[in-house]
Design a protein that fits this description.
single chain; 65% helix
Length: 217
């Protein structure tokens, strides 16, 4: 008994033993969360651009008249857009890591988290679209609609970006539902195969007419 106790204490003290306990028992939830994080990221990138992107404005007065010139956003704004765009997909992957340690329902947890994560991007999307249009009075290409150099009308880019977010969110929700349906089917088939009884001696006797058959050498 004392020898086994010493072995147990030594195994508990090994670094590999504690690290092994941190490894997920199932990798499917983590893989699914990483897969669903892709459309969530692109949807988040477009939504965050609508939310915080703004042109760099240069203003001065000439003979009492205010003159404005709009330029591309600063590097700081672009950095914020990319930084905030990574938040929703990283949260989803974090849920996938935690769900990998949950038996049986890990896949469903990831599917629900992906749907909630994607739909959250639509809560203020219409307001962000309106605000972005206001911040870009000459459109995304920074040229007035009356100019021959204008390729994008005012509000056109915002409308297309919002439509892209809706499409990507719809894809994420559809993929999550499909993944949950596949998980339900696989779980049902696994339980069905595991619940099938193996042939017993009594059933073999019934198949042979009530008596065991013998074979002569």
């Amino acid at each position: 008994m004392s020898y086994r106790l010493v072995q147990y204490v030594q195994s508990r003290g090994r670094p590999g033993y504690s690290l092994a306990r941190l490894l997920p028992s199932a990798k499917a939830p983590l893989a699914l969360s990483a897969f669903l994080a892709l459309p969530v990221f692109f949807a988040s990138l477009m939504a965050v651009s609508l939310a915080i992107e703004k042109p760099r404005t240069v203003e001065w007065r000439d003979a009492g008249k205010l003159i404005q010139r709009f330029h591309d956003p600063t590097a700081a704004i672009e950095g914020k857009i990319w930084l905030f765009a990574f938040v929703p997909p990283l949260l989803l992957v974090l849920v996938g890591v935690l769900a990998s340690h949950v038996r049986r329902i890990g896949m469903y947890v990831v599917c629900v988290a992906a749907i909630v994560d994607a739909l959250a991007l639509l809560i203020r999307l219409s307001r962000w679209e309106t605000h972005h249009t206001t911040r870009y009075p000459f459109g995304e290409d920074l040229y007035p609609d009356s100019s021959t150099s204008s390729l994008v009308a005012r509000g056109q880019w915002e409308h297309n970006a919002a439509g892209t977010v809706h499409s990507l969110v719809g894809y994420t929700v559809a993929l999550s539902i499909a993944a949950a349906a596949i998980a339900v089917f696989l779980d049902w088939r696994r339980r069905r195969e595991g619940g099938q009884a193996t042939p017993t001696v009594g059933s073999e006797l019934q198949q042979t007419g009530g008596a065991p058959t013998t074979s002569s050498a």
